[in-house]
Amino acid sequence: MMFSGWFDLPWWGLILSALALTHVTIAAVTIFLHRCQAHRALELHPVISHFFRFWLWLTTGMVTKEWAAIHRKHHAKCETTDDPHSPQVHGINRVLWLGVFLYVKESYNKETLERYGHGTPDDWIERNLYSRFATTGVVLLLAMDMFWFGVIPGALIWATQIAWIPFWAAGVINGVGHFFGYRNYDDVPDASKNIVPWGILIGGEELHNNHHAFASSAKLSSKWYEFDIGWLYICILSALGLATVKKVAPKPRFAQPRAVDFDTLHAVIGNRYELERLRRWSPRDAEVLRSLRRGLLRGQALAGAEGTKVAEALKKSRALDIALAMRHELAALWERSSASKEQLLRQLQDWCRRAEASGVAPLVDFSQRLRSYATA
């Protein structure tokens, strides 16, 4: 009985069982907690939704309201001292290896839960079981694993299940996902990275820069070579009538450059991270832009000799100075949530007029491309 349970499996069968069980937990986190609850990117059938709630209570003890609130705060305060788990603030080693403790610490912050935890399940079973007895599920899981797989193998599988999410989600995604990797969207104002282009092991969460560019998208892959297994599962659930996708990242469409109107405004804001970089720079100005980009990828401002070099280059290049100032101005335009559509349209029209009158070739090209964006 120490090594044999209800399922008398060989050693490789035990390993496959552990991987399968942990993958179900990963799917529950990315589909239910992340895309459905935190970002409202999709709706799930009540049966699927409750299965995920039960499975997460059993395998992690995480409370839906706490997880959604902490993640929403991460997006709202990303890479600042108020970010619950930024490696740019806390350091990569602390987040990677001790990220779960940062999560637990933030879960006791009542202000975070009240401000960011709205809209999560609040029914009888949530109040009286899942939230009230959050650790009971993992104790029950230990007994179940020992019964199914034997005492020692069951205990090892249980330990793997318990450690899986704290390491891969709280550690790797929150840590490595903001420190190492590649970026499809450099204009995203944080240090998020795509760890690898194939989101399989962590359910698609590997594509973290894509997610920060379009947080409310149910699909995390954006390039043809990227794969998001969580999106595959969502498509299967949708085909079975068990899920409804509410939003995915927009795909840019182009027409002939035209006068800026409300359709242009809508298309530009919707595709703001798809806009191409300014091109046709001189070699000297291109090197300055590369230096600025390196600073952005590190999630910090340029300093020291590098910062001085860039500042001097900006003084010598009127074109680059104008272009960067106008690029910042354009980025600020779509962040003005309090402005009316009419105000935003007038500002965009004025921006394009000044850009094309500037005489800065890359800026003129950029404005003309911007005027070619079309709504889907």
Structure description:
With 376 residues, the protein is mainly alpha-helical. The chain folds into two domains: 11-245, no CATH class; 253-282 and 317-374, no CATH class. The chain has helices at 11-38, 46-59, 64-76, 87-90, 92-107, 110-116, 124-130, 136-149, 151-175, 208-213, 229-239, 262-270, 283-297, 304-316, 318-333, 341-357, 361-370; strands spanning 42-44, 198-199, 227-228, 243-245, 253-254, 373-374. The strands form three sheets. A two-stranded antiparallel sheet has the order 1-4. It has a two-stranded parallel ribbon with strand order 2-3. Strands 5-6 form a two-stranded antiparallel ribbon. Helix 1 (11-38) packs across helix 3.
